[in-house]
Design goal:
Number of domains: 3
CATH topology of the largest domain: pyruvate-formate lyase- activating enzyme
CATH class of the largest domain: Alpha Beta
Number of strands: 21
Strand order of the largest sheet: 13-14-12-11-10-9-8-5-15
Largest sheet: 9 strands, mixed
Strand content: 15-25%
Number of helices: 19
Distance between the termini: 16 Å
Helix content: 40-55%
CATH architecture of the largest domain: Alpha-Beta Horseshoe
Shape: globular
């Protein structure tokens, strides 16, 4: 039977199946490129197509809480842990974050540790932990206790933690080192004081000069020190960008730096325009080309926007394995072809974990084609994919499922076949910048929708989490 959908402010209600879905509509922004001749027609068309495509992709069903599934045939390598608390909320940031409240955060960490036990009880044994936020180091002792528990439950070999520069203090670094953290990613964004003021980061997180000192202090404490940087910020010019690169390369000499384009949601985009000025894509490609040129002599490219002096952890946890499990409010998981999202309601997260044993409130079942496309996008984020691995994973169907996409990418000069692998060309690396920018913009828009749904969630009764019925879900999965 054909379902009837009633659309109301981004939420669709399926009147036949009595379900409702988060719909992330297309975010067309006129004039983003202005008169930029550096961007080709192919790149503009790719941008428009992806913006529409990823709006459709981020289509999650909301409803009865789901139980975390037992570990499937593929054991996820990565555990993502989300700490949503920050000491200040930046206007450009679309991640799930709230202002720090110490009693609330302490309670949250206790619930988080309970969830780690639940994950272990289901048979999951991840070896890589990536802790993001928010600012995970707002309560370093609580974080250390949580990581020590994780090490006792899982065969952990790598731990990566995000932080802000004001936490690069010896007492915090000592706690992290003792907890086994071997990669620290610091949200620097820029060393330009005016841009830091426009971004609302100068007062709470320090000046460019102060943050250079802090990075120098932190160097050598842990296995890998990464500086997170943003390019194509409103008001950023080439001189400011080159100064940032000069400081990274010649002065602070961090082990690794992630330099990614500004990515917002519709909501944060509006806030950002009020505080930082209008956003345009006209400088994105020339800035990316300049970054590649300046970084080439000192760092190797390890993903489309991560540069490493030596071998270290890749910047994005989703590269290590396309399947991963998430813990914490607002955390995502991708398991056996299903995307799951934990509730964004922080107080409800704790109640659900303690009373029902799960906090999943949204999910999306991916069909074979959608899984293959997701794997393609995420794997090529790391610059190449091994044909045999994908041939085996999809029982010889991967290239049949995606032959149109692969043909189009070859014709566009994005990818080439090279000795048993598919790799991005130099042109294709920028195409993948566009790809990932639009993917994460879609994710950010979904986060906005989940935040809007928090009030409705608060009114929902606490009911036991149910297992996902894959046979029933496959019949209603979005196309």
């Amino acid at each position: 039977m054909t379902s009837t959908f009633l659309i109301n402010q981004g939420v669709a209600h399926d009147t036949n199946n009595r379900r409702h879905y988060v719909i992330v509509p297309d975010a067309q922004v006129p004039g983003l490129y202005e008169e930029n001749t550096a961007v080709t027609v192919t790149e503009r068309l790719l941008d428009v197509y992806l913006r529409s495509s990823y709006a459709r992709q981020m289509y999650f069903e909301l409803g009865t809480p789901l139980a975390l599934p037992d570990v499937g045939p593929v054991q996820p390598v990565v555990l993502y842990i989300h700490i949503p608390f920050c000491e200040s909320l930046c206007p450009f940031c679309s991640f799930h974050r709230v202002m720090l409240n110490i009693p609330k955060a302490t309670t949250y960490f206790r619930a988080l540790r309970r969830e780690l036990h639940l994950i272990a009880d289901k048979g999951y044994q991840p070896g890589i932990i990536y802790v993001g936020g928010g600012t995970p180091t707002v309560l370093p002792d609580e974080l250390a206790i949580t990581l020590e528990l994780a090490r006792s439950l899982f065969p952990v070999r790598q731990v990566s933690v995000e932080t802000n520069p004001n936490h690069l203090r010896e007492e915090v670094l000592s706690v992290l080192k003792a907890a086994g953290v071997n990669r620290l990613s610091v949200g620097i964004q820029t060393f330009d004081d005016q841009l830091l003021k426009d971004m609302g980061r100068y007062a709470p997180y320090g000046s460019g000069a102060k943050n250079r000192e802090r990075l120098t202090l932190a160097r050598g404490w842990l296995g890998t020190l990464n500086a997170d940087m943003i390019f194509n910020l409103p008001g950023q010019n080439e001189q400011s960008l080159l100064r940032d690169l000069e400081i990274l390369i010649d002065e602070v000499r961090v082990d690794q730096t992630s330099i990614y384009p500004l990515m917002t949601s519709r909501r944060t985009g509006k806030t950002m325009r009020k505080t930082m000025g209008p956003y345009s894509l006209q400088n994105e490609k020339p800035f990316y080309d300049r970054i590649r040129t300046e970084m080439a002599g000192n760092y190797r490219l390890s993903s489309i926007w991560c540069y490493s002096r030596n071998a270290g952890l890749i910047d994005e946890y989703i590269i290590a394995d396309t399947s991963y499990i998430g813990a914490g409010s607002g955390a995502f998981s991708y398991l056996d072809g299903v995307m799951y999202a934990n509730t964004f309601a922080i107080n409800r997260y704790g109640r659900m974990i303690n009373r029902t044993g799960a906090a999943i409130t949204a999910h999306r079942v991916l069909r074979d084609y959608q899984q293959a496309r997701y794997d393609l996008v995420m794997t090529l984020f790391g610059l190449s994919l091994q044909k045999d691995d994908f041939h085996q994973k999809y029982a010889g169907r991967f290239f049949k499922l995606l032959w149109k996409e692969l043909l189009a990418l070859r014709l566009a000069g994005t990818i080439v076949d090279d000795a048993g692998q598919i790799r991005l060309t130099r042109k294709g690396q920028y195409h993948w910048i566009i790809m990932m920018r639009e993917f994460f913009t879609g994710v950010n828009n979904f986060r906005d929708q989940m935040r809007d749904h928090v009030r409705a969630e608060r009114a929902m009764p606490e009911v036991p989490a149910r297992p996902l019925d894959r046979s029933r879900e496959s019949s209603v999965a979005a196309g």
